[in-house]
Amino acid sequence: MKRSFAAIAILCGIVGNGAIVPTAQGAAAPETTAAGPPPPAANSLWLAQSSSSLSEAQQEQVDELLRQGQARVSANDYAGAIAIYQQAAAIDRQNPRLFSGIGYLYAQQGNYGEAIAAYRSAIALDGRNLAFRYGLAHSQYSNGQLDEALATYRDILATNPREINANLGVGGIQLERDDYDGALTTYQSLARIAPGNAQVYEALGALYIRQENYDQALIWLNQGLRSNPDNGNLHVSVASIYLLQGNYPEAAKNLREALRVEPQNAQAQHQMGYVLYQQGDLEAAFSYLLRSVRLDPDLVAAHALLGELLLEREQYLQAVLSYRKVAEAQPSDPAAFYNLGLALWGQGLQAQALSNLEVAAILYTRQGNPEGAERARELMTFWGFER
C-alpha cells in the first residue's frame, strides 16, 4: 500500500507536470501554465471587441449581450453564456474573438469537440493569433486527438520556432506516447532556447523519472533550481524522486522548501501529508492533506489518502465526498468503490453502500482479483444483504 500511494503521488505530480500542454486561451484571458483551461476572466470584454463594421444599434446590442454573457460566466453558467455569446456572434460575424471566447467556454465545460469547432472559426477569421491556435491545440489534446494537437503545435512552430509553449506541447505529446528519444531532443533543444525556463527542467525531470533514471532527473531539476530557486514545482519534483526511493527525510526537506516559497502549492501540501502519514504522524498528515484538497479539489491522490484518515476518524460525510472524487476520476478502480461503500454505510446510506460494494466486487472479478471480490461480497453478507 505504501508504494501505491507514492506512485499515485508521482503520477499526479511530477509525471503529470512533465507532459506539459499549454492551455486554452480565450482572446485576452490570463495566461496560465497548468494543464486545463484558465479561469474565466473578470472583464466581459475579454471575449471580444466589437467589429468596426457594426452599426450603432448593432454595437449597442452586442455590448449588452456581452454584459449578459459575463454575468452568466461569473455565475459559472457556461451553457447560458455560450448561448448569449452565440447570439452576439450571429450579429458580429467577422469577430474572431467572439468565436475564440465561445471555444474557451466550451472547454470550461469539457465539451472539447465544440471548442475545436469554435477555435477553427476564430482561426479562419484571424490565422495569425497564437492564442487561438493554442486554444485549438489544447482542445484537441484534451479530446484525445493527439495527432491533430501535434500538428497544430508544429504549425505554430513553423512560423514561431522559438515559441516555448508550442515546444512544450510537442514534447508533452511525445512523452505521453513514450517517445523518449523524441521528447529528449525537443526538451534539450528548448533548454538551449530558454535556458532559464523552469517548465523545461520540470519536463526533463519527468522524462527521466518515467525511465526510472533518477540520477539524471536530479541533475536537470537541480540545474533548474539554480536558475529558479523560488520555484515550488521544481522542489516538489525533486521531492517526488525521493518519495519514489523511499527517502522520506530528503523528500520532507524539499517539500518544506517548496512550501516556504509557495505555501499555496497543493502538490507540496499533498506530498508532505503523505510523508507524515508514512512517518506515523497522522494528525499532521491530516492537516496537510486537508489543505491540499482545499487548494485543489481535483487532487485525486490526496483525496484517496485523506478518505482513509476520514474513515478512521468516523467523519463519514467528508469521507464520502473524498471517495466520490476518487471513484469519478478512476471508475475502473475497485478499491475506490469499496471504500466509498464503507463511507456511505457509516453515513447511514445502506442502499448506496451496497450498490458500491457490488460495483467493487464486479471490478475485482474483471481484474482477476477473486480475493478482493470475495472480500466485498463477504462484507455485503455481513451487512445483511442476501445474494
Which sheet architecture does the biggest sheet show?
none
Total number of strands: 0
Name of the CATH homologous superfamily of the domain at 30-165? Tetratricopeptide repeat domain
The radius of gyration computed from the alpha-carbon positions, rounded to a whole number of angstroms, is: 24 Å
Dominant shape: globular
Mean pLDDT: 85
Give the termini distance in whole angstroms: 30 Å
Q: Please tally the helical runs, counting DSSP H or I stretches of 4 or more residues.
A: 21
Using the coordinates above, name the CATH class of the domain at 30-165.
Mainly Alpha
The second-level CATH architecture of the domain at 30-165 is: Alpha Horseshoe
* Helix proportion range: over 70%
User: Do you know the CATH topology of the domain at 30-165?
Assistant: Serine Threonine Protein Phosphatase 5, Tetratricopeptide repeat
Query: Which structural class do you get from the secondary structure elements?
Result: mainly alpha
Low-confidence stretches: 1-48
What proportion strand? under 5%
Secondary-structure element order, N to C: HHHHHHHHHHHHHHHHHHHHH
Keywords: Repeat, TPR repeat
TPR repeats: 96-129, 198-231, 232-265, 266-299, 300-333
InterPro entries: CellSynth/LPSAsmb/PSIAsmb, TPR-like_helical_dom_sf, TPR_rpt
